[in-house]
Each structure stands twice: as structure tokens, then as C-alpha cells.
Write a structure and sequence with these properties.
The complex is a heterodimer of chains A (514) and B (207). Chain A is mostly helical and 514 residues long. In chain A, 67% of the residues lie in helices and 0% in strands. In chain A, helix 2 crosses helix 11 (266-282), helix 12 (285-303) runs antiparallel to helix 13 (314-336) and helix 12 packs antiparallel against helix 16. The longest helix of chain A has 31 residues, at 184-214. Chain B has helices spanning 2-12, 22-25, 35-44, 54-97, 115-124, 148-165, and strands at residues 101-102, 105-106, 131-134, 178-182, 194-196, 199-203. Chain B is built from six helices and six strands; from the N terminus they run ααααββαβαβββ. In chain B, strand 3, helix 6 (148-165) and strand 4 (178-182) form a beta-alpha-beta unit. In chain B, 47% of the residues lie in helices and 10% in strands. Chain B is elongated. In chain B, 36% of the residues are buried. In chain B, strands 3-4-6-5 form a four-stranded mixed sheet, with helices on one face. A two-stranded antiparallel sheet of chain B has the order 1-2. Classes of the chains: A mainly alpha (514), B alpha+beta (207). At the A-B interface, helix 4, helix 5, helix 7, helix 8 and helix 9 of A face helix 1, helix 2, helix 3, helix 4 and strand 2 of B.
């Protein structure tokens, strides 16, 4: 029981750390308490990862004491003050806020009901997978010991023996953090719990976002999305693997970008920064996920002629750039130690033939489809995605969201295909040699795209069904759903709100308050 | 019929969307009490907002039908996926119940690295002392390509020892304070440093 209380304190501290950045912005944009706390947790994990990495690459102590703990304690105290001031202060004016989602609590209950068994299982399981004791948990132990062990992390190790050294420090830092709170003997159990907790946090944000955009039924159906994949029950949802956490952080980024597309409030982009950094620090695939989401959001603004601002697309690109900048210290440290990505180098470009490319490409695509992480035929997922595309054609109201989510999904799939092709091209005459690696990797890495298919379909279908009459759905009109406060720096003026105008009509403010 | 359709659409309304879309915000010439018309506008978009015709109704119905089918499809897939994942999770729990326990906690053991040896090393090697792991054919330091057979035979045990012996750092070269031999113990190692014929921990200055 004491261990559980300590673990709860460790996570609460991370929530308070995240609150420093999240709370004031979330209040302005109208994010309610459950998703706000969830977002604080994910952001707190990102802050922990950044600080641990900065200390490590600077040669400082990577353990919680003597530096990291006090710094985070100060941040948590600041977070507590921010929250307390918020509670004492006058209620924020209703400005550019999403409509309330009165039945979102049903979705939160579903998230809790689905995630709780995974949390209980994770708490009871010891470290037992070689991915844990050769990499994630081992690195966590080494970080807790105080420095970046050169044999485990750096250039002193034989690169053929210690693989995946380029993986970032987010998850090991979380292990180290938990170990300090609950002790070395309980650390692996407490660390396991963080995995389903991060998944649940992202799903709470998903429930609220989808409930407000596409209705309560869609909000409930998205609730278990990250806990429905093939490998989640055995490994990625209950052991110390990075796949579910990185999918959770990236999914949060995607959801916040979705809210930005819907409301135009810059606050959503600010909120997305923490999860974006967390995703980049949790696993290398986070780079692909975040980049895909940011590029797709920018493209959705440009492709769908629905915005009053010609520069709106810069927002998500800036977000992506800032998140990339936050992960630069780790990349620079890796380069200085001669540690490179496993996908870069070793390709035999000279012996490459078109036939090799086609054969390898086909093999990669077949494996990506065959091992798509659903326990039934991939056909059903493809059918769902196609129905979303058809709905986007039929219902303009959801078109931009579908373009964004579909674009993100497509970019991620292409990025993963490219990643596996680079592996195949190391031995282009025998692409089957890479098939084993692809099979073992793809079911875990495709967790996010698998969840994205459901998100895409639910947004499209929910929006189509939610096209309610105006008499009752004043929610669809800007003055009701989004109100402008001229001096609010986090909110764009109404002429930048995503407004669909008749073809050829100039973009004019519809509810300018001045 | 119109009233019934309107009521049906009201009941079917699943959301209070946040998306700000002027096709919905600018209902030019639309009748706010005509639910079907409003849905029609949202379905057709602003370009077609004032156009009448039977095709619009068909398009609207098609959209609603497709959306309903899509929702059911997702519900089925998500439900089946969750059932499968939860069954896997329960299986993992059942498997864990068969593992040994220590102080009420399940403990995973790598059979080829006896717990007794880990306790022996933990008692002998101070927490901050760097350790080198030596196994036949395994090159942990440098860039020499390890033999695959050696890598396969020993790396799991080396990783497990590194994990269990943390915070003792791993090292190569002059920094090494202790060497842990796996599989093959050199002949000169004293009996006091041998834990078994295949496992030993030796102070670096001795060998």
C-alpha cells in the first residue's frame, strides 16, 4: 500500500510539473478538468525526459538527486501555485471555447474500465522481456545510477552488441523517476504501471475531443482504442515498452491539432508542444508521428480552402520545429559519440536494381498489412478508412478533419514503409532477410496508425450524423461555439477561424466583436 | 413524414460539434425549423445549400446510412480488439502466477543465471564499482563483430546481469574493477573467486 501511495505521489508530481505549462493555456481554451489533468501528466513526462537528457549529455548527474529532483520539485510547486490561483481567481470568460461534451464522462468511465485491468496486471508483472532488461529498464537503472553509462548508452559499446543506442531517454528517465520514489525493488512494477497510465491519459483527451467534435457515441467508441491492438495484452500494454507511451503522446498531439483545426485557437498548438516533446523523447518513431501530424495539419489548412488566414499553416510547422529543437541535445550527443540511426548507413545502393526495389517494396507492404495490429483481417480496418473517405466526399463539414487525420495516417504509413525499405536495402538481393525484423517490429509500431483508423472513421461518421438542425444546434454557429476575445493572445481573431465560405467569396469576419 | 423525419434526425444527433464551419454558420435562406433542410445544408455544403432536388435527399440518406454502418463497423472492431487484448492480458497474468515469488512479488528468473550467483556478486562487488562481462566469443567493447552464436548464447545473460547488478556500471579497459566470467572461467582464477565451474567474479587487479 505504501508503494502504491509513493507511486501515486510520483505521478502527481509529474502532473503538477506539467500543469505549469498546461493549466493556464488549458483554462483559456476551455479544456475541462479530466483531459487537462491527463495532458499535464503527458507533458510532465516530456519535461522529465528533457531535463534528464540535458543533465546526461552535459555530464551531470542523471539520477533524481541531487539536481533533477529539486528542479522538478520546484516546478511541481509552481504548478500547484498555478492551479491554486486558477481556483481562487474569477472564472475565465467564455471565449472561443469548444462546446461542452455533457456525456464525455461516460467515455472517461469506459477508459477507466478498460485501462484498470491493464494497470493492475502491469503492477503485478516483473521485468521479464528481453526488450526490457536489455534496453528500457536497463537504461532506467543506469540513469538512476547517476550517469550515461558509456557501455550501455554511448560510443564505448560494440554497436553490434548494444543495438538501438539511438533510442531517446524518455522511458528510462521515467523508470529512474519511479525508482527514486518507490525504491529499487519495486521500481520495475511501478514503471510498468506508467505504460497503461500514459495510454489512458491520451484516451481521456481523445474522448473529450471526439465527444465535442463528433458526438458522445463516437467519444465512447474511441475510449478503448489504444487497448485493442494485437500485442497490447501481452507486451506493449503491460510491460515496459515504449510503443504504447509514444503512441499515446503522438495521439494527444494529433487530437490537439484537431482541436486547433476546428477552433483556430493558438492555445491548442501551445498545449500540443508538451506531448510532442514527450513523443520525440519516448521513441525514435515519435519523430515520424509528430512530423506527420504537423505536416498533415499544415496541409489540411492549405488544401481545404476553409481558412481566412494565409499563414495559418505555419502554426503546426512551428510546433514541429520547436519539438525537434527540444530533442536536438540528444541527437548532438549521439552524433558526438558516433552513434547513428540503425536505419541510416549500410545500404547497398550500388547493387540496387528496379526489380529489387519492387520486390522489397512488395514484401514490406505485405508484412505491414499482414501484421497490422488487429486480431482480425486487416480488411475491416481498410473498409473503415474507405468509409471515412466516402463520408468526407458526402459531408463537407467533416472534410478538413478527415483530410488531416487521413493525411497523418498516410504519412505515417509511408514513413514506416520507408524505414523498413532502408532495412531491406541493406541486402537488396535478399529482402526476405529483413522480414523477421519487420514482423517483430511492425505489430508494435503500427499501434498508432491502427488507432488512427478508428479515430478517422469515428470523426467522419460522427460528424455526418451530428449534422443537426440549426434551430437546436446553435453549436454550429461561430457566435455560439467560438467567441472572440480581442486581447486574448491565445486566440486568433474570428477571421482566422476555420470558416468555409462559398466558393470565390472573400474571407470576411462573421462575428468581429470590435 | 417531415415531422417524423425531423424528430428522427433530432434523436439521431450524436453531437454538439465544435467545428466552426461557415457552411453551417451561414444558413442563407434556410428554414431553421426544417431539420431535414438543415441537415441537407450540412451534407451538401454551401455551394449546394439552396439547390433543391431529389438527389440531395438521397445523398443525405446515403451519408447517414454510411455513417451508421461505419460506426457499427468501428464498434465491432474495437470491441473484438479489446476482447482479444484483454484475453491476452489475462493469459499473461496467469503465466505470471506460475513464476516464483519473493516478499509477495512475482520474480522473473533467467535460469542460466542463478539467483544465488546474483546475490553472491551483489554482496561482493560494491555498488559503484565498474564491472566487465567476459564470455567466450563475445566482444562487448570495441567494434569487432561478435560471433552470432556467441551473441545469441550469452547476450541475454549479460543484459540480465547488467540489469540485476545495477547500479554497478559496465566498463572496458582500465576502468574495470571487477570481471565477471560467464561460461568459461580462466584456469588461474582462485577457488575463492569461482562461484561455479562456469561462473566467477574476480577483482580486476588479480587478473
Amino acid at each position: 500500500m505504501t508503494d502504491l501511495l509513493r507511486l501515486a505521489a510520483a505521478d502527481l508530481a509529474l502532473v503538477l510539473v506539467g500543469a505549469v505549462q498546461v493549466w493556464p493555456v488549458a483554462r483559456r481554451v476551455g479544456l475541462p478538468l479530466p483531459p487537462r489533468v491527463a495532458l499535464c501528466f503527458i507533458t510532465g513526462v516530456g519535461v522529465l525526459a528533457v531535463l534528464s537528457t540535458l543533465l546526461g549529455v552535459a555530464g551531470g548527474p542523471t539520477g533524481v538527486l541531487p539536481v533533477l529532483g529539486p528542479v522538478l520539485a520546484a516546478a511541481a510547486l509552481a504548478g500547484l501555485i498555478v492551479i491554486a490561483r486558477d481556483r481562487r481567481g474569477p472564472p475565465a470568460r467564455q471565449t472561443r471555447r469548444p462546446r461542452p461534451a455533457p456525456y464525455a464522462w461516460v467515455g472517461y468511465v469506459v477508459v477507466a474500465a478498460v485501462a484498470a485491468p491493464f494497470v493492475v496486471t502491469a503492477w503485478r508483472l516483473p521485468v521479464s522481456s528481453n526488450d526490457e532488461y536489455m534496453m528500457w529498464a536497463l537504461r532506467g537503472r543506469m540513469l538512476a545510477a547517476g550517469h550515461l553509462d558509456p557501455l550501455v548508452f554511448g560510443g564505448a559499446a560494440n554497436p553490434l552488441t548494444y543495438q538501438s543506442r539511438e533510442y531517446p531517454l524518455g522511458l528510462p528517465a521515467l523508470f529512474s523517476w519511479v525508482q527514486r520514489w518507490v525504491g529499487a525493488d519495486t521500481a520495475e512494477y511501478g514503471a510498468h504501471v506508467q505504460v497503461p497510465l500514459l495510454g489512458a491519459a491520451a484516451l481521456v483527451v481523445a474522448v473529450w475531443t471526439i465527444s465535442t467534435m463528433s458526438g458522445w457515441l463516437a467519444g465512447i467508441l474511441i475510449a478503448p482504442a489504444l487497448f485493442t491492438a494485437t500485442d497490447v495484452g501481452r507486451h506493449t500494454g503491460v510491460l515496459f515498452f515504449a510503443d504504447l507511451p509514444v503512441a499515446a503522446a503522438a495521439l494527444t498531439v494529433i487530437l490537439l491539432l484537431l482541436s486547433w483545426l476546428a477552433t483556430g485557437g493558438r492555445g491548442w498548438l501551445l498545449l500540443a508542444f508538451g506531448p510532442a516533446v514527450a513523443a520525440l523523447y519516448l521513441k525514435t518513431e515519435g519523430l515520424l508521428f509528430v512530423a506527420a501530424a504537423c505536416v498533415a495539419a499544415a496541409a489540411a489548412v492549405r488544401v481545404c480552402p476553409a481558412t481566412g488566414s494565409r499563414r495559418a499553416h505555419r502554426g503546426p510547422l512551428l510546433l514541429g520545429g520547436a519539438a525537434l529543437a527540444a530533442v536536438l541535445p540528444w541527437q548532438v550527443w549521439l552524433a558526438s559519440h558516433g552513434v547513428h540511426s540503425r536505419f541510416v548507413g549500410g545500404q547497398r545502393w550500388g547493387s540496387l536494381r528496379v526489380g529489387h526495389l519492387l520486390h522489397g517494396s512488395g514484401l514490406v507492404l505485405r508484412n505491414m498489412a499482414t501484421y497490422w495490429p488487429v486480431p482480425y483481417s486487416t480488411y475491416w480496418a481498410i473498409l473503415a478508412a474507405l468509409s471515412a473517405a466516402a463520408l468526407a466526399v458526402l459531408v463537407p463539414a467533416g472534410r478538413r478533419a478527415v483530410v488531416f487525420l487521413g493525411g497523418t495516417l498516410a504519412l505515417i504509413v509511408v514513413g514506416l514503409w520507408l524505414q523498413y525499405m532502408l532495412t531491406v536495402l541493406r541486402n537488396p538481393r535478399n529482402p526476405a532477410a529483413a522480414a523477421g525484423y519487420i514482423r517483430s517490429n511492425v505489430t508494435r509500431v503500427e499501434l498508432l496508425p491502427a488507432a488512427l483508423v478508428w479515430l478517422l472513421t469515428l470523426v467522419a461518421a460522427g460528424t455526418a450524423l451530428a449534422a443537426a438542425p440549426r434551430s437546436q444546434a446553435g453549436s454550429l454557429s461561430p457566435p455560439d461555439s467560438v467567441q472572440h476575445r480581442p486581447n486574448d493572445p491565445l486566440n486568433l481573431p474570428p477571421d482566422r477561424v476555420d470558416v468555409v465560405h462559398p466558393a470565390g467569396a472573400p474571407s470576411t469576419p462573421t462575428n468581429r466583436s470590435s | 413524414m417531415g415531422q417524423r423525419a425531423s424528430a428522427g434526425i433530432r434523436r439521431a444527433s450524436l453531437a454538439r460539434p465544435v467545428a466552426v464551419v461557415a457552411s453551417e454558420a451561414h444558413p442563407v435562406g434556410s428554414d431553421s425549423d426544417n431539420a431535414a433542410g438543415a441537415v441537407q445544408d450540412a451534407v451538401d455544403g454551401p455551394e449546394d445549400g439552396n439547390r433543391a432536388g431529389g438527389g440531395r435527399l438521397g445523398r443525405e440518406l446515403a451519408a447517414r446510412l454510411l455513417a451508421s454502418v461505419a460506426l457499427m463497423l468501428v464498434a465491432g472492431c474495437v470491441g473484438a480488439g479489446w476482447w482479444h487484448a484483454d484475453r491476452d492480458r489475462a493469459g499473461v497474468m496467469a503465466a505470471a502466477a506460475r513464476l516464483p515469488t519473493s516478499d509477495g512479488r512475482v520474480v522473473f528468473v533467467v535460469p542460466r543465471v542463478p539467483e544465488g550467483f546474483i546475490r553472491y556478486v551483489s554482496a561482493r562487488v560494491p555498488a559503484g564499482d565498474p564491472v566487465q562481462y567476459v564470455a567466450p566469443g563475445l566482444a562487448l567493447c570495441g567494434t569487432a563483430r561478435p560471433r552470432y552464436a556467441a551473441w545469441r548464447a550469452w547476450m541475454g545473460q549479460v543484459f540480465w546481469l547488467q540489469y540485476r547488478l545495477a547500479p554497478r556500471p559496465s566498463a572496458c579497459g582500465a576502468a574495470v574493477r571487477w570481471r565477471i566470467y560467464l561460461g568459461q572461467v580462466p584456469p588461474g582464477v582462485s577457488a575463492g573467486d569461482r562461484w561455479s565451474p562456469t561462473l566467477a567474479v574476480v577483482p580486476a587487479h588479480r587478473r
